[in-house]
Amino acid sequence: MGLEAPVMSPPGGLSAQERLSWWEQQLPRLTSADRSEARLAMGELSLQLGNAKEARITFYEAKGGRLAASEMAQAERGIGLSYFLDGQVALGVPHLERSRENLEVPAQQEVDFLLAAVRGDAVAAGSDLLSQRMSAYMEASHLTGPVEKSNPAMVGQIQVDITRAQWGAAAMQSNWDRMTTPYRIAIHHTAEPFTATSVSATAAEVRNVQATHMHRDDPMADIGYHFLIDRAGRVVEGRPLYAQGAHASGDFNIGNIGICLLGNFSAQPERGASYAKAQRPSAAQMATLERLVDQLRQIYNIKASQVQGHRELKNTECPGDELAAWVKRYQRSG
Ligand SMILES: [Zn+2]
Prior knowledge:
By secondary structure, the protein is α/β, with parallel strands linked by helices. The protein is built from 12 helices and 7 strands.
């Protein structure tokens, strides 16, 4: 804030379209420096109006003038956002990346939010508001949101990457049994095709699993599994370990820790095209599975031979051939 003349602005009470027209009328009378600033304002209005191409042209015109570093960043940001509005994320990302350093705080947070959404990264607190503000860009570029922060937390002695609060778990109902000392572990897949790696997509998928378990003819108290592992290898907190699981049939749940990997690892052509081909567990999922199983065995003194695939307890394809083969190897290892 210096002693410069106040930047001119359109009269109040005008719509975005009217303000845009007002700026257009001013342009010929402005000095070239003011014209560049005016174009930044016009570009913003075009973004608000959802006119991606017009916004992009206007921001490029602004860039053609003399701009301070912060104004140049605004122009780059605007160009990047215009590509997001067009659904062309790959074209928008380099502009957003160039812009972020010289942006002021609210705009910088917005840009960081979008970049994190593209990468499937976690974003910091306050993301609900950000995701509302950026929803037009998220939707146009098919980004899932909100992107919740993945904040590793200890649940008992186990570190989880996504807690129940973070995935938005519904509260456990009263019809649960107390877990007796765990002495075995059962491995499952969700049997639902799933490839996304973002925290928000995982959260939505785990909410689905929980809803399926809690809204059946014989509703479960909670999600059936104690842990889930997402495609990026994150550990997701499931049913609390003090509660017996509901992932194997009847008494097979006694003392049995349920771990479920997200994905469909067994072909189910009868369920339609998207189920026709088995997915493979991701390398990140397998690395996390082995680490988690090792850790649980150590804590509860569980024998390797007591780590089982669901199919060893019931006539089911679960957890698919590849994971079942891993279980067999694991049993022999210990
Ligand atoms: Zn299973």
